[in-house]
Amino acid sequence: MKLFVYHTPERTPEDNLPDCAVVIDVLRATTTIATALNSGAEAVQAFSDIDILMEKSERWLPDKRLRAGERGGEKVPGFDLGNSPLDCVPQVVAGKRLFLTTTNGTRALQRVSQAPIVITAAQVNRQVVVNYLLDKQPETVWLVGSGWEGSYSLEDTACGGAIADLLIKQGKMSLEAIAGNDEVIGAFSLYSQWQDNLLPLFHKCSHGQRLLRLNCHEDLEYCAKTDILDVLPIQKEPGVLVK
Ligand code: 3SL
Predict the structure, then answer these.
(1) Is 0.90 topped by the overall pTM?
(2) Which string of DSSP letters, residue by residue, matches 137-186?
(3) How far is the CA of 238 from the centre of ligand 1 (A)?
């Protein structure tokens, strides 16, 4: 297995695809997706475009759908939910399809939606993602960070490093053997330095600061928790993730 880290959708190659793409948006889209599916949502359908989301969700039974998402971190006006994972409790999401649009995470999903296997990862479900990769042994794995509007986001790269770290430990591999590009070594080093202090790291990074300005302190605390959810979001058709 060879791992490749790409910090943003824009820096992800366009001329080929991996055997497995792992989309990461720790703050907060992939944490929200994992939490919603863990709470019994039927599926999460991701859209980068609000108008297309409205058109597709309109065809769904109103009591079986929730429109969720953010722009600039704030709930889209008129939607049922924003993009806080803490809102995705069973009483709200069980049995429903979440039609989700976010600024960056849904764009990252779209970028690799044609890969044969697409899964999503966050700190909360890192162990399950690693178990899946060790079990399936895809030859090439891309860890695709969502970033923020084209620029690098520290928390996504740290999560890429957290995945590499656990793969190395549990798969008994060396960093040199598993690293397909230098970004993997950078991500591994970042995680090694901050693994016991992820919340302070999230408080320092630019998107963490943006969310703190929006009073999302509890979201940051939750997104920093590691290996707490036993759920693997996997794409069943382009843009639709199920458990
Ligand atoms: O950009 C995204 O996809 C979101 O996760 C950003 S936010 O954390 O909801 O602001």
Answers:
(1) yes
(2) --SEEEEEE--BTTB--HHHHHHHHHHHHHHHHHTT--HHHHBSSHHHHH
(3) 20
Which numbered atom of ligand 1 lies nearest the CA of 105? 3
* 210 Cα nearest atom in ligand 1: 10
> Ligand 1 center to residue 149 CA distance, Å?
10
Residue 176 to residue 88: CA distance in whole angstroms:
39
Closest by Cα among 218, 96, 103, 112 to 149: 103
Two structure tokens written together for 114: 């044609």
**CB count, 10 Å around CB of 41?**
26
pLDDT in tens, 107-164: 999 999 999 999 999 999 999 999 999 999 999 999 999 999 999 999 999 999 999 9
Exposed / middle / buried, residue 77 (Cβ in 10 Å: 0-12, 13-18, 19+): exposed
What residue ranges line ligand 1, CB within 6 angstroms?
25, 27-29, 70, 73, 83, 102-105, 146, 211
Length of the chain: 243
pLDDT tens for residues 201-243?
999 999 999 999 999 999 999 999 999 999 999 999 999 999 9
- Facing residues of 24 across strands? 121, 145
Hey, what are 154's tokens?
A: 């520290």
Q: What angle do CA 87, 231, 177 make, to 5 degrees?
A: 125
